[in-house]
């Protein structure tokens, strides 16, 4: 399943993705989220992991940079 990491880089293979405000988990088929971010630059990283939240590493991640007005 996938996770969105807010202002965090990809997680190395095998690292456990924490459950906190910067690491959003989508293990129940979620497809939409509304984020409330402070104005300014941010990065959003999509990170895939297994059922135990162990990261599949950089090859299964993608990052975009955004600017919030």
Overview of this structure, please?
The chain is globular and about 35 Å long. Strands 2-1-3-4 form a four-stranded antiparallel β-sheet, with no helix packed on it. It has 69 residues and is mainly β. It has strands at residues 2-6, 23-26, 40-48, 61-68. The chain is built from no helices and four strands.
Quote the beta fraction.
35-45%
Low-confidence stretches: none
Strand line-up of the largest beta sheet: 2-1-3-4
* Share of helical residues: under 10%
Gyration radius, in Å:
12 Å
Please tally the helical runs, counting DSSP H or I stretches of 4 or more residues.
0
Mean pLDDT: 94
The rounded distance between the terminal residues' Cα atoms is 30 Å
Q: Report the strand count.
A: 4
Indicate the overall shape: globular
* Broad structural category: mainly beta
The quaternary state of the protein chains shown equals: single chain
The succession of helices and strands, N to C, reads: EEEE
Brief digest:
This protein has strands at residues 2-6, 23-26, 40-48, 61-68. With 69 residues, it is an all-beta fold. The chain starts with a strand and ends with a strand.
Which descriptors apply to this entry?
mainly beta; four-stranded antiparallel β-sheet; 38% strand
Give the secondary structure arrangement, pairings included.
Elements lengths: L1 E5 L16 E4 L13 E9 L12 E8 L1
Antiparallel strand pairs: 1-2, 1-3, 3-4
């Amino acid at each position: 399943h996938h996770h969105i990491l807010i202002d965090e880089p990809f997680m190395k293979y095998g690292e456990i993705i924490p459950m906190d405000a910067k690491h959003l988990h989508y293990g129940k088929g979620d497809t939409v989220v509304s984020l409330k971010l402070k104005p300014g630059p941010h990065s959003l990283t999509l990170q895939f992991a297994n059922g135990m939240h162990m990261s599949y590493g950089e090859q299964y991640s993608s990052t975009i940079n955004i600017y919030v007005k």
